[in-house]
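User: Hey, quick favor. My workstation is busy. Could you predict this chain's structure for me?
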Amino acid sequence: MPMHLPRTSLEVRSLLKSSGQLELSLVEAPVPSPKANEVVVRVKASPINPSDLGLLLAAQDFSRAETSGSTARPVVSVPVSPGVIKALAARVDKSMAVGNEGGGEVIAAGGSPAAQALLGRTVGMIGGAMYSQYRCVPVDQCIAMPEGVTAREGASAFVNPLTALGMVETMRLEGHTALVHTAAASNLGLMLNRICSEDGVALVNIVRRAEQAQQLRDDVGAHYVCDSSAPTFIADLTAALTATGATLGFDAIGGGKIAGQILGCMEAAVSANATEYSRYGSSVHKQVYIYGSLDRGPTELVRSFGLTWGLGGWLLFNFMQRVGPQRMGELKARVAANIRTTFASHYTRVVSLQEMLRLETINDYARQATGTKYLLDPQSSA
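Assistant: No problem, here it is.
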């Protein structure tokens, strides 16, 4: 074990106070010595994913926030309503570390062969508290990167790649043959297109602007792309579903009408060639999983899709438990081998820990705009 293991690590914390404030700050946390099957990683990069923002920002409007502290240790606070305090009671007055995934260099390792094999390697990792300078994690929460791959390239090796692979895997497990995906011009959406192209899976992409549709066609050669802002959207989606036979959808938006529209168009596509009328709708199961919350409003369903359908939530960590460690090992190996191609991520801005807590930066990444992705560099002093 190295002689100079850091004693503390500077990290981002989110604290919902019973007094009615949400506070973001930087704190010093102890760096533990790794146990037998653990490693300590010097974190060099961590993406700011939509899945991180719920814990970090608690769905609050930071245009009303105030700043205090110093340049080196900024503090940002925003008032929250009593209703928010009640709804999030389990986290009140608990300082929460943030950041699902990251990449870095293993600087210390426990005594197990698996841990020792990672010493000095660049890894992608998952496990929370990644908006930190150093992180101690179990070896099974790491993916060793191929020689020459940087921490920035491996920082997003878990959430988006394994979510996209999980969608295709779920499709196969549940007996579907094609997919529908919303917010399809995102980093995850681009990955999913590449996976489906490699695996011969038909994919219907739903985007919210015409330029995003063109981007998908130009960047990854997407064949079925439907713009939800177009007046012909329902007809276009029904035609794409008829052509592909897709009966499984993954929705990153969550609120609004889109999940119900997908189910309705699936029913129309399935029923197009029906020879007999049924007042219960088609007997083909149609399923939409909500896995994101780009729209935090209510999910609206207009019941036009019979009685053979399902709407549920989908979470990567639940999927990982469902398929088990052997299959997850195979999926991780695929990610590592293709981290610069199929699973490459692109970022629009890199920020330091201090920059991440500047109000203008918070308000920008809180918009969750498709095609805009921030990367945190915890080692930067900017």
